[in-house]
Each structure stands twice: as C-alpha cells, then as structure tokens.
Amino acid sequence: MTKIGILALQGAFTEHEQVLKKLGVETVQIRNRQDWEAHTDLDGLILPGGESTVMGKLLHDLDLFEPIKTKINAGLPVFGTCAGLILLAKTIVGDQTKHLASMDINVARNAYGRQLGSFVTDADFKGIGEIPMVFIRGPIIEAVRPEVEILAKVNGAIVAAREKQILVTSFHPELTGDERVHAYFLEMVTQVKQDKL
Ligand code: GLN
C-alpha cells in the first residue's frame, strides 16, 4: 500500500490527510525527527500550506531539514501546496532566504497582496481539466527553468508546476473537495515506484 508522509509542524495538514484517506492511501504525520526515522519507507511527502518562514525555522529546529532535503534530492516524490511550494523553490524573489531549494523556480510570496490575497476561482490544470482553486495569501511562480513543466495559470500567472517528481501548487486543492490534484500526485508516486520517472 502506498504510504505518504505529511509534514505536520504547522498549517493545513489534516485536510491533506483526509483527502489521501479518501483516496485509500496510508498517511503518517511527520512532527519530529523520530517520526521521520520511524518511517523510512515513505513513498511520498506532502508539504502543506501555512507560513513558510515558520515552517522553515521549525524544520531546522527539529533537525528535519537535512534529512528531508537529502531524500527529496534523492528522488522522493513531494507535493508542496502554497507555503510548501515556497519551501521547495530555489529562489524566493526579493529574499535571500533559501529553504529546501529543490525545484528550479522563482517564487514571489504573498503575490496577491494582503487584502485581496484570498479568493476562489476555476481554472484549467494540465492533464486534469478545470478544477476549483482556493488561494490564501498564496505565492505565484514568476519564472521556471526549461526542465519545469507549467501545469496551471490564473490571470497569466503560473500557479502549478512540476519538475520530475516534485509537484507544487500556489493554491490549496485539499480545501475544495476535489481530489483530482492529489490523485495526480499519487500517479506520480506510482510512476516513481515503478521506476518510470
Ligand atoms: N503567505 C504564506 C507564506 O508566505 C503562504 C500562505 C499559505 O500557505 N496559505 O508562507
């Protein structure tokens, strides 16, 4: 059975857990180094929304930063939503901070401003079709390197992308009741398991 870890330090992690359970997948919450070491057999990892600065600091404080970064770089499938996307970006625009820096994208935090930062819209997601997208003070992807595939845009701005086994969305698919983006990630996980990616 597929087993997905969900980083559970802060933010919207229980919602991801519920979606994955509906899709028949085993989930484990990663709260500390002990949890991480108890589950060396994870097939994938979700980095949820929340506050990237807080999560980034906690990753270091809890000694999770290096082992997680190493495993992602070694090919562990990972899905970052919103703050999780920021954690995975190699470049944060106007900021020297680097977190896991696993994906070749430039990301602008709080790109929709603080007042109009939260909204819901429908847009096309490559390979899935039109889906609802919930934005909560989300980032946008300002630039991608050629190896990154753009999966969705809203008003011209990139809001979903993929590089090999790394998937990111600026929005929160776990808050819509539509499970198709999670199913898309699980398909990536299966491909990695079968050595096809
Ligand atoms: N604004 C948050 C950040 O910059 C992300 C918001 C979210 O994850 N919903 O980290």
Plain-language structure description:
The protein is of the alpha/beta class and 197 residues long. It has one domain: 3-Layer(aba) Sandwich (Rossmann fold), CATH 3.40.50.880. The chain is 28% helix and 34% strand. It has 6 helices and 12 strands. The protein has helices spanning 13-22, 33-38, 52-61, 65-73, 83-88, 180-193, and strands at 3-7, 26-30, 44-47, 78-81, 89-92, 103-108, 118-125, 129-136, 140-144, 149-154, 157-163, 166-169. The strands form 3 sheets. The protein has a 7-stranded mixed beta sheet with strand order 2-1-3-4-12-11-10. A 3-stranded mixed beta sheet has the order 5-6-9. The two termini are 19 Å apart. Glutamine is lined by residues 49-52, 82-83, 86, 109-110, 136-138. Glutamine binds next to helix 5. In the presence of PdxS, forms a dodecamer of heterodimers. Only shows activity in the heterodimer.
Give the number of DSSP strands: 12
**Ligand species:** glutamine
Distance between the termini: 19 Å
Counting DSSP H or I runs of 4 or more residues, the number of helices is: 6
Total domain units:
1
Mean pLDDT: 96
EC number: 4.3.3.6, 3.5.1.2
Catalytic activity: aldehydo-D-ribose 5-phosphate + D-glyceraldehyde 3-phosphate + L-glutamine = pyridoxal 5'-phosphate + L-glutamate + phosphate + 3 H2O + H(+); L-glutamine + H2O = L-glutamate + NH4(+)
Binding site for L-glutamine: 50-52, 109, 136-137
GO molecular function: glutaminase activity; pyridoxal 5'-phosphate synthase (glutamine hydrolysing) activity; transferase activity
